Amino acid sequence: MELTEIRGLAERIRENVARVIVGKEDTVELLLVALIAGGHVLLEDVPGTGKTLLAKTLARSLDCSFKRIQFTPDLLPSDVSGINFYSQKTGEFEFRAGPLFAHIVLADEINRATPRTQSSLLEAMEERQVSVDGETRPLPEPFLVIATQNPVENQGTFPLPEAQLDRFLLKLSMGYPSTEEGVELLRRFKERNPLAEVASVAGREQLLAACEAYSRVRVNDDLLRYVVEIAEKTRTHPELALGASPRGTQALLRSVQALAAIRGRDYVLPDDIKRLAVPVLAHRLVPRNRMRGASGGPEQILERILADTAVPAEPADR
Fold it and tell me: Which of 3.10.20.600, 3.40.50.80, 3.40.50.720, 3.40.50.300 would CATH assign to domain 3-212?
């Protein structure tokens, strides 16, 4: 696939999602970044803002298998990955695949599961495989996990550890709709559910081709240094106990390449890095004081780091 074709693919998916989701163009664009860059997404927001609906609409827009896992405290790792069971019909043990064996997996309210079950996702998200009874089984490609969690309901939840947060390429928030968007939302869902009419507009082969092609987007050495400088400032910031890791800088690089391809460019701009630095890096930072003070949380700290870091000039041939 040519880089110029990625923009057309993204536009078709974006327009299809817009048939159900009102507004939220930025959130949809970032979901497409994760989809093409081969990462995973954590959707965190208050209940009722459309997190699950957005994940379902994206899945229906793609000609890929989709599974939803409702995470609860009694969910076991085997309920997610699958089990070996004895078949009386064949007289042998057979593997029954869990819901992880799908192209797009919706992990709904992931913070309600126990840490043991949450950790069962680590190998799947990072290695694209699961191990059951000593046997490793590859997961289908492409493989995308969209996890949701509600930050306001803390009773009976298990916060995600930093090791698992680091596996998510992006952390997004939906937010409430504007007045106009709220009116259009009511009008659109007044008589029917538009999700039922959504059909796929992109095939699996097209997605795999886009996932292979986006890495050809050019990144100037000055921009690579810019990414590293941002990460280094998070590691030495007095208000942060843990800064961005090398995995975080690689995630930011992949994300900006995918964003440039989605926007129809074969090169990365400094604005791409500034656009994605917060959704890619903020959830990987650990503040020294977990209670937000006057300085704000990791997002605000990262915004100040971006404002204080010199932006490299574009090459003259641009």
Answer: 3.40.50.300
